[in-house]
């Protein structure tokens, strides 16, 4: 199989939600000498892009996206250790993304998708999970201060979205605001809200989030 | 001109009969901090105590001016009833479901044989009784519950979205179970005096699951609840979040009387996409009702009314910090609207 054929197979296993097939194709590509970066950037990531586009076009829905994300995870489990070896401990790649769901909110569908997408796009991920207090977010930002750092918060409920305003205010108070770019997402989040609370960006969907995140880090 | 009580007016408006003007009601949650301070019944206590729940619901009428009373203020009592771990709410935040109890068909069996007088399900029914005794002749008494699809997601976790794709037998079994519960719970609310039923089924969004899954895993189950309510002459409002524009015809096929849409839906398109369901909504609860002035809210209300909305209200649950004057601006616009 040519390299291009292997990459196409990787892309297709993501699009067709083939979890086992995706892991197998990843192993095959690694064995054939492709780098983890090539596998992600030229195989898996284009697959996830197609998945995002299909969701936007209402051709597929959440059940299929979650299965694609699961296929992506199966590949990433094999690739993460290889990636570290390839890049060496010093390299920051595109940056580090701290992802979390605002306190009081346990809707993690969007959060998981965005985390997966960012990971697929080369971010080192610190996944803080759901229902995270702002104090914990501050600690994590402090810990990663000095890196190319992106904070990615989601809130699916209007009530929990209120906490995003406090996150930005607390980062400013702690003198950490300039150490980190901030993206917020979730159904109730709008550009107007982002501007009002002084965050940096939001995105339409998980696929778009990866694009916006890469732009922010440049 | 015929004068109706608010109760008659809403009932007529929801069932396609002529009325003198638009009823001013809110089908989604009504609790706000200003109302709590005015009536002395605060979250989270008002979620767990029937007297306090009724007091805060009453404030929606006496403090704000809604022409109905409505309980409860959250959608976690049902999952809590089945043993899901709940993270308590605060004065400003609603409780949330953090633990899940069903993984398999066998797990569903273990949950059967429940007693509807228990837990917060019983509290909500008691609160309805208090409100119905006091206002039942005059005001609509709205009972609200989570819909069967979102309840299934609460008790199964987010794996639920993959389950409907990969394990249809389990998916349908869990839907049967949650729907039977919803029917029983709704009937009990009606026995206690509820005259209008609201089903909040946020994750059963067409935007999230699309037509195929919606038709198989949502429509027949909503229909079962609505048929049971229509047997006792109770109209039903269905609220689902997200951009549901393309799904409205399918959502209506369960026989529901009214559909509440969120701010992502164009009101005129929504009205055009249904046959006879009353479209309810859809002022943005955050960027409009919470964060704008009464003047801006009136302007936006006029646009939504001009688009042909059937009942003016928030596009989702009212944000707890929403100022009373903002809600009153919306109410004033609804009351002065003639169809």
From TrEMBL, chain A:
GO terms for molecular function: cobalamin binding; cobalt ion binding; methionine synthase activity. SUPFAM superfamilies: Cobalamin (vitamin B12)-binding domain, Methionine synthase domain. One of its GO terms (biological process) is tetrahydrofolate metabolic process. Belongs to the methylamine corrinoid protein family. Residues 94-218 form the B12-binding domain. It comes from the Archaea. This is Monomethylamine corrinoid protein. Pfam families: B12-binding, B12-binding_2. It comes from Methanolobus profundi. GO terms for cellular component: cytosol. Residues 1-91 form the B12-binding N-terminal domain. The keyword NADP does not apply.
TrEMBL record, chain B:
GO terms for molecular function: dimethylamine methyltransferase activity; metal ion binding; uroporphyrinogen decarboxylase activity. Coiled coil: none annotated. GO terms for biological process: methane biosynthetic process from dimethylamine; methylation; one-carbon metabolic process; porphyrin-containing compound biosynthetic process. InterPro entries: Methanogen_methyltrans, Methylcob_mtaseMtbA, Mtase_MtaA_CmuA, UROD/MetE-like_sf, Uroporphyrinogen_deCOase. Residues 5-336 form the Uroporphyrinogen decarboxylase (URO-D) domain. It comes from the Archaea. Keywords: Metal-binding, Methanogenesis, Methyltransferase, Transferase, Zinc. The keyword Aminoacyl-tRNA synthetase does not apply. Its cofactor is Zn(2+). NCBIfam families: methylcob_mtaseMtbA, mtaA_cmuA, PRK06252.1. This is Methylamine-specific methylcobalamin:coenzyme M methyltransferase. It comes from Methanolobus profundi.
């Amino acid at each position: 199989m040519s390299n291009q054929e292997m990459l196409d197979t990787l892309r297709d296993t993501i699009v067709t939600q083939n979890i086992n097939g995706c892991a197998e194709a990843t192993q095959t590509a690694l064995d054939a000498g492709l780098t983890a970066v090539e596998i992600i950037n030229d195989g898996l990531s284009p697959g996830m892009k197609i998945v995002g586009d299909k969701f936007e076009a209402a051709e597929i829905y959440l059940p299929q996206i979650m299965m694609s994300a699961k296929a992506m995870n199966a590949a990433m489990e094999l690739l993460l250790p290889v990636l570290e070896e390839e890049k060496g401990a010093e390299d920051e790649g595109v940056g580090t993304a701290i992802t979390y769901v605002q306190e009081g909110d346990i809707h993690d569908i969007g959060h998981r998708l965005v985390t997966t997408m960012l990971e697929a796009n080369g971010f080192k991920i610190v996944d803080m999970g759901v229902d995270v207090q702002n104090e914990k977010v501050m600690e994590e930002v402090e810990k990663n201060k000095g890196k190319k750092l992106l904070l990615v918060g989601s809130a699916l409920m209007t009530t929990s979205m209120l906490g995003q305003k406090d996150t930005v205010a607390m980062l400013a108070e702690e003198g950490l605001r300039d150490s980190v770019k901030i993206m917020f997402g979730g159904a109730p989040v709008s550009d107007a809200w982002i501007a009002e609370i002084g965050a940096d960006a939001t995105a339409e969907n998980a696929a778009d989030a990866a694009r916006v995140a890469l732009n922010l880090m440049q | 001109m015929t004068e109706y009580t608010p109760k008659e007016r809403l009932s007529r408006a929801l069932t396609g009969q002529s009325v003198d003007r638009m009823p001013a009601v809110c089908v989604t949650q009504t609790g706000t901090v200003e109302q709590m301070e005015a009536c002395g019944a605060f979250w989270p206590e008002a979620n767990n105590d029937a007297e306090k729940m009724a007091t805060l619901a009453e404030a929606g009428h006496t403090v704000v001016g809604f022409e109905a009373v409505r309980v409860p203020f959250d959608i976690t009592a049902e999952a809590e009833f089945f043993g899901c771990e709940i993270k308590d709410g605060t004065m400003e935040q609603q409780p949330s479901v953090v633990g899940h109890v069903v993984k398999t068909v066998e797990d569903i069996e273990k949950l059967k044989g429940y007693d509807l007088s228990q837990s917060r399900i019983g509290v909500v029914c008691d609160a309805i009784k208090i409100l119905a005794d006091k206002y039942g002749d005059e005001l609509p008494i709205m009972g609200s519950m989570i819909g069967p699809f979102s309840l299934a997601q609460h008790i199964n976790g987010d794996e639920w979205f993959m389950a409907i794709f990969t394990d249809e037998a389990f998916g349908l079994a869990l839907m049967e179970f949650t729907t039977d519960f919803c029917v029983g719970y709704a009937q009990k609310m009606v026995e206690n005096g509820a005259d209008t039923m609201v089903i909040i089924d946020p994750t059963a969004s067409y935007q999230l699951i699309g037509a195929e899954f919606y038709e198989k895993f949502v429509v027949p189950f909503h229909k079962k609840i609505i048929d049971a309510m229509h047997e006792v002459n109770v109209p039903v409002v269905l609220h689902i979040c997200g951009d549901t524009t393309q799904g409205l015809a399918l959502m209506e096929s369960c026989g529901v009387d009214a559909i509440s849409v969120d701010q992502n839906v164009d009101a005129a398109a929504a009205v055009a996409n249904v046959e006879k369901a009353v479209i309810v909504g859809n002022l943005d609860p955050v960027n409009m009702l919470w964060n704008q002035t009464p003047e801006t809210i009136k302007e936006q209300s006029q646009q939504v009314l001009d688009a042909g909305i059937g009942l003016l209200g928030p596009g989702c649950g009212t944000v707890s910090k929403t100022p009373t004057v903002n809600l009153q601006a919306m109410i004033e616009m609804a009351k002065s609207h003639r169809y």
